[in-house]
Specification:
Blueprint lengths: L3 H13 L3 H38 L1 H7 L1 H32 L14 H10 L2 H10 L11 H32 L3 H24 L4
Helix pairs in contact: 1-7, 2-5, 2-6, 2-7, 2-8, 3-4, 3-6, 4-5, 4-8
Length: 208
């Protein structure tokens, strides 16, 4: 494996760029506080591990090369993101209509946070495409890719975990400072709209 330090540096820049994972973590931290954000992050990390082992075993290459499989996963991910975003907006409409305070949460509301994080990342074929296009640049031509891909995948996952934990705590602090229900209401609405936007963007994207 070549230029590991450069690989880590590039991973950091790529990880902090906003994407569907960030939007879902933000949404669940705002609605379910720190525990919701951490559960969502754990789901994302588990999905990244699945992508890592898929890349190591060559499954990602099969998905990327198969237009049908790529499209199925892509549209499933897009539909899921649009569903999550629409669910947020609909819940806000219901709260407006019934005058339920934004801070009141149903007992089982944060149980799906892990699942949301997991499926948001797992059903994004762009992650598999990223692994297969990015990782080989740091492997010497002709060398076996099993161990380098495994190291890079685990490194990317650990860095993602560190960033997500920091991000969750930051959002939670900001959320605590914004006590007004109306402000939280607006932020949740914006986040839901952004998630729908990511879903539409994913549906319109094509494999490179």
């Amino acid at each position: 494996m070549e230029n590991f330090f450069l690989f880590v540096l590039m991973c950091i820049f790529l990880i902090i760029l906003p994407g569907p994972d960030t939007a879902v973590v933000t949404k669940n931290t705002l609605i379910n506080q720190r525990i919701g954000g951490l559960k969502t992050s754990l789901g994302i990390i588990c999905a990244l591990l699945c992508h890592t082992f898929a890349a190591v075993l060559g499954l990602s290459a099969i998905i990327v090369k198969s237009a049908l499989l790529f499209s199925i996963i892509k549209y499933a991910g897009a539909v899921y993101l649009i569903y999550l975003g629409a669910k947020i907006l609909w819940s806000l409409v219901k709260k407006d209509g019934t005058n339920i305070p934004v801070d009141i949460k149903r007992p089982n509301e944060n149980k799906s946070c892990f699942k949301q994080g997991f499926f948001t990342d797992l059903l994004n074929p762009k992650v598999a495409l990223f692994f297969l296009s990015f990782f080989p640049q740091f492997v010497e031509r002709g060398n076996d890719t099993f161990l380098p891909f495994l190291i890079m995948g685990l490194t990317f996952t650990v860095l993602s975990a560190l960033w997500l934990v920091i991000f969750v705590y930051f959002i939670n602090v900001v959320n605590d400072l914004m006590r007004k229900p109306r402000a939280k209401h607006v932020i949740e609405g914006i986040t839901g709209t952004i998630i729908i936007g990511f879903g539409i963007k994913l549906a319109l994207e094509k494999a490179d």
